[in-house]
Amino acid sequence: MLAGKGHKAGMNDELFRMMELYQQGFNCSQILLLLGLENLGRSSPDLIRAMTGLGGGLGFSGKICGALTGGVCLLGLYAGRGAPEEKEHDRFLLLIDELVQWFEGEAGRLYGGINCADILGEELTYRAVTPKCGTLIGSTYNKVKEILVSNGINPAGEEK
């Protein structure tokens, strides 16, 4: 949530920002990492560039949904290891497992699977983020934040 705003205003701001990023041509995994970086007050064009390959289910091959792989990467941004002197969060793999199980339940219930081809069907050929993607991006982002908070990690990056 954005600092100094109420919960509902923060969520509306995030949805608006997701739409802006979508209109700028970013894919699902890129949008998730951009939101996370912005929430931390950072930018990393190299990281966002690397996330390009996850959109459309691994380069629009229709494999694992980029909202899930992007969500896992977003957890890594907050709780993973980035330098030799760092340690990943002691529950890092459990954080990922929680997200994967949640996503399998959500996407499985709504679309019959976690692959982009399951979710988008014929729409995958258009190589574009769709309203289905927007729903999954938003719910995945919210689930990642929930997982972080429940494990003592502030999504704004500030010490508690």
UniProtKB/TrEMBL annotation:
<dbReference type="InterPro" id="IPR036280">
    <property type="entry name" value="Multihaem_cyt_sf"/>
</dbReference>
<protein>
    <submittedName>
        <fullName>Hypothetical membrane protein</fullName>
    </submittedName>
</protein>
<dbReference type="InterPro" id="IPR010181">
    <property type="entry name" value="CGCAxxGCC_motif"/>
</dbReference>
<dbReference type="Pfam" id="PF09719">
    <property type="entry name" value="C_GCAxxG_C_C"/>
</dbReference>
